[in-house]
Design brief:
The protein is mostly helical. The protein has helices spanning 9-25, 27-44, 87-123, 125-139, 143-154, 158-184, 188-195, 200-237, 248-255, 264-291. It has one domain (35-295): Orthogonal Bundle (MetI-like fold). It is elongated and about 80 Å long.
């Protein structure tokens, strides 16, 4: 008996309506989704917004305070940094880096973890033991230390940064998927499919995978915030995004030296990181409650 069903159009419409109603009823999730939507829209429309060039330096406009403070300028709503660059413009363009790294790293690490977790859980035996020993070895090393070592080898830049975070995060998904596969493959409908002569690949794709996807998607959504923090941390330490590319972690690092006199240079990037991670977490919590109440 197959677990994958094709739903008629009207049923899919009811499901979309139910999802929307569930999100509206979950106030924290709705707030997180709305905030994240604003951040994504600002990122997509960054080139069309009336903002100064985020890379243009103007040493005569160094450390201009936000518009609501004395000596503030309407041309620089959130002030400027030590090189006269507009903080708001850099925040908007830096959001693109955080979101791209967050989504790309989660997709890559999730795909690798899903594949290895499926193989380990379904095959068992020596294959399972080998994969689990690799996972145990990686978990024995502090995550940030491991990221720094891999970053030194891979080098700086957007693509190496995504690869570094993906390589160090797949173990989370692999452990989850393996545990879920072990539970599902012991169920009666999987045993019936085996007795019926269905191939292992078909059983995994049509019976096992659909039953573990909800837990996998929830963990992946919640992990986006963790990846954004990892990217910001590496960029802050100088192992991530390099100029002229813009990153919130990089902005935070540049502003820490003038925190006592020009607090806005570091405060607003830090606030942007906090709000983005918070919005992703709130939306992920709603997704957890909606898709898999067992994880609540």
């Amino acid at each position: 008996m197959s677990t994958v069903l094709t739903l008629p159009a009207d049923t899919r419409g009811v499901i979309r309506h139910t999802v929307f109603q569930s999100l509206r009823a979950h106030r924290a999730g709705a707030a997180g989704g709305s905030l994240l939507l604003l951040i994504v829209l600002a990122t997509l429309l960054a080139g069309y917004l009336p903002l100064p060039d985020p890379l243009t330096r103007n040493l005569t406009q160094r450390f201009v305070p936000p518009v609501w403070l004395d000596a503030g300028s309407i041309q620089h709503v959130l002030g400027t940094d030590g090189q006269g660059r507009d903080v708001l413009a850099r925040l908007v363009h830096g959001a693109r880096t955080s979101l791209v790294v967050g989504l790309a790293a989660v997709v890559l690490s999730g795909a690798l973890g899903l594949l290895l977790g499926l193989v380990a859980g379904w095959r068992g035996g020596v294959v399972d033991t080998a994969i689990m020993r690799v996972i145990d070895a990686m978990l024995a090393i502090p995550t940030m230390l491991f990221m720094l070592v891999v970053a030194l080898v891979a080098g700086a830049g957007l693509v190496p940064l995504i690869m570094v975070i993906a390589v160090t995060n797949w173990v989370t998904y692999a452990r989850l998927v393996r545990a879920e596969v072990l539970q599902v493959k012991a169920l009666e409908f999987v045993s019936a499919a085996r007795i019926g002569g269905v191939s292992s690949l078909r059983i995994v794709l049509r019976h096992v995978l659909p039953n573990i996807l909800s837990s996998f998607v929830v963990v992946a959504a919640l992990n986006v915030g963790t990846v954004i923090l990892a990217e910001s941390s590496l960029s802050f330490l100088g192992f991530g995004i390099q100029p002229p590319a813009i990153s919130w972690g990089q902005m935070l690092s540049e502003g820490r030296q003038s925190l006592a006199t020009s607090w806005w240079v570091a405060t607003f990037p830090g606030l942007a990181i906090t709000l983005t991670v918070l919005s992703v977490t709130l939306l992920g919590n709603w997704l957890r409650d909606h898709l898999d109440p067992r994880l609540s």
